[in-house]
Amino acid sequence: MSERKVLNKYYPPDFNPLKIPQNAENKDYLQGICIYRFYIKYTRCLQEISFKTDPRNTDYEIEEGATRNFMALKLAQEQEKREDSEKEEKATNPMKLLENRTQVYKQEIELMESLEKLRDLNRRQGNVDYDSMLLKYNLAKLKKKIKGMQEEDENTIKSLMGIKRKIDENEDDG
Questions:
Q1: Which carries the bigger pLDDT value, residue 169 or residue 104?
Q2: Whether the Cβ atoms of residue 91 and residue 74 lie closer than 8 Å to each other
Q3: Is residue 13 part of a domain?
Q4: Helix (H), strand (E) at residue 166
Q5: Residue 115's pLDDT is what?
Q6: What is the C-alpha to C-alpha distance for residues 51 and 64, in angstroms, rounded to an integer?
């Protein structure tokens, strides 16, 4: 009877690890990960759909009976190819280079114009004298105050002098 938890195993002196048979079928195993095949029968038409796992791409491969609606990996690869071809075309085509330069110059001109507008606006706002605005506001307040005081004086003079208003007879009827 052998021990259950062996820490070091015995290897004979004539042991050759190359003579140990490896996994014979590459289809069934890929880097130690099993490839599973699934068979599913569609309930409406009883057609068989088969697909298998793809450990290399961490996805599924459809073998028969179905089509994919959306493949994210394929879409990403196609987009990378398009971007690479566009970069290559931009680098080799002199007309594209010229068009890109003109677009860059247009953008620079637009930026310069917008900066100039902002500078003009800042200059206009910088010329505003807030003290004079406050004085104008205070003058208007003072004028109102003086007018109010004059009206009060007139009212007191009228009351002291005994000037009475003639009361209309129509107001009493109302």
A1: 104
A2: no
A3: no
A4: none
A5: 94
A6: 7
